[in-house]
Amino acid sequence: MIEIDQITKTYGNSAVVDRVTMKVEPHTIAAIVGTSGSGKTTLLRMINRLVEPTTGTIRIDGEDTRTVPAYELRRRIGYAIQGHGLFPHRTVGQNIGTVPKLLGWDKARIARRVDELLDLFQLEPGQYHDRMPSELSGGQQQRIGVARALAAEPNILLMDEPFGALDPIIRAQAQQNLIDIQKHFGTTIVLVTHDMEEAIRLGDRIAVMDEGKILQYATPQEIIARPTTGFVDELIGTGERPFRLLSLASIREAVEPGEAKGTPISADATLRDGLAELLWSGRAALPVEDGGQRIGRVTLTELNRRAARPQ
Ligand SMILES: Nc1ncnc2c1ncn2[C@@H]1O[C@H](COP(=O)(O)OP(=O)(O)OP(=O)(O)O)[C@@H](O)[C@H]1O
């Protein structure tokens, strides 16, 4: 658990992070979203003390971070940034093994961990282990950056716009990869993004920041349905609300017994994907498939109901 308690950072006379209080429960993802300059990166970097808070306290699993040497804190907490920050003259394997090596792991253990992570990130170890970062695509470099941050099995991972530079398709894959890996390791993640769509997709809770303050910290459902300020509403985009709600749930959750004609949709697709397919194909219902088996159908009527503002 990360407990941020009345944390402030001032530069000169201005508080760029202003008395922020928030808790991140273990094994969850908190997304910090806000406009440029709202203080997101500063807040994130105070968690691993890359930036020292001016006032306030941060506790990790009950321990005040000021009582731990900063270098030790940074080895314990994974950190991944936009542009990956890989060492250009070290191989992929050496990059991923950086922190385990600093921690004195033996060679065999480091090698096992590097291969495990390459596998998880869908990069064949035999093929990628000895490559240099310049011999990888942008998306692959980004995945290695995240793999390196996870190498020493940190309970906590801080991510600053990790997917910001990726094109939309690679970005969606990288996001799914992160969700799978977070489930696999149970890592607690704090992620900074300026993209509300990404925050909604990844965050168990979303903190909306403006001018150093947290305006709302709640589940994506709550933020979409009941934004506390006009600014939060604006950031969500009023025209997007019903679609954002639909993108939070899978077809599996809306499936009902019955038949429907035409190409089926996967139970793992989002309700938003389902609506798009219904509208595009001009159908009132789609058959739903799970692992090659028909499990029922999803209807336009049901998606209409689920897209409406929650009461
Ligand atoms: N070392 C510093 N000295 C003075 N001002 C700083 C320093 N670091 C950050 N700031 C200021 O603090 C404010 C918040 O910066 P921060 O990088 O945390 O914002 P952000 O929300 O992450 O922005 P972006 O999305 O553009 O990265 C900005 O106005 C920035 O200019």
Can you tag this structure with a few keywords?
2 domains, CBS domain Like, four-stranded antiparallel sheet, binds adenosine-5'-triphosphate, 13 strands, alpha/beta, nucleotide-binding, globular, Rossmann fold, six-stranded mixed sheet, 311 residues, 25% strand
What would your notes on this structure say?
- With about 300 residues, the protein is α/β, with parallel strands linked by helices.
- The protein has 2 domains: about 240 residues, Rossmann fold; about 60 residues, CBS domain Like, CATH 3.90.1280.
- It is about 40% helix and about 25% strand.
- It has a 6-stranded mixed beta sheet with strand order 6-7-8-3-9-10, with helices on both faces. The protein has a 4-stranded antiparallel beta sheet with strand order 2-1-4-5, with helices on one face.
- Helix 12 packs across helix 13.
- The radius of gyration is 21 Å and the shape is globular.
- The structure holds adenosine-5'-triphosphate.
- The site of adenosine-5'-triphosphate (ATP) has 11 residues, from helix 1.
